[in-house]
Amino acid sequence: MSGLHLQLLQATPDTLAQLGSLLIQTVAHGGSVSFMHPLSPDVALVFWQGTLAAAARGERIVLGAWDAGVLVGTVTLHLDCPPNQPHRAEIAKMMTRREWRGGGVASALMREAERLAVQHARTLLTLDTASDGGASGLYERLGFTFAGEIPDYALKPHGGLTGTRLYYKRLGPV
Length: 174
What we know:
Layout: E1 5-8, H1 13-28, H2 41-56, E2 60-67, E3 70-78, E4 88-96, H3 105-119, E5 124-130, H4 136-141, E6 145-155, E7 161-170
Parallel strand pairs: 4-5
Antiparallel strand pairs: 1-2, 2-3, 3-4, 5-7, 6-7
């Protein structure tokens, strides 16, 4: 992980192509990130264009982890919460390329997302992850608290239902 560089992502052609590739790879290998397999490049591109447009409007932050020009991971921090929740942000679309898993990429992205959440006056982070094959262990190691599980919440990318596990983490006083 010595060459890892974290940065805010913007909608350049290369970044969009690499985000699309990462999303397609994640879904193809069973990652429950709201899409079904097979995921077309056009659908992935439209998703990331919308996501990065929302980031440009300040509604979210999209972080990328790069190594030698290759996007090896990403996470999104949703900042656009209802008026009665200005203290909260949501973690979404945590993805790491398969060949980089276990190397600290996700942890580095999450630590930076937490730092940016605090910088944006957020004191509570929430997230959900699939019950089957999700990243519960990662989030628990990072200090997130398990709040509960909803059964049969979503379809797995290759079919069949999975529940979702809900987590939160306090970043400071409310």
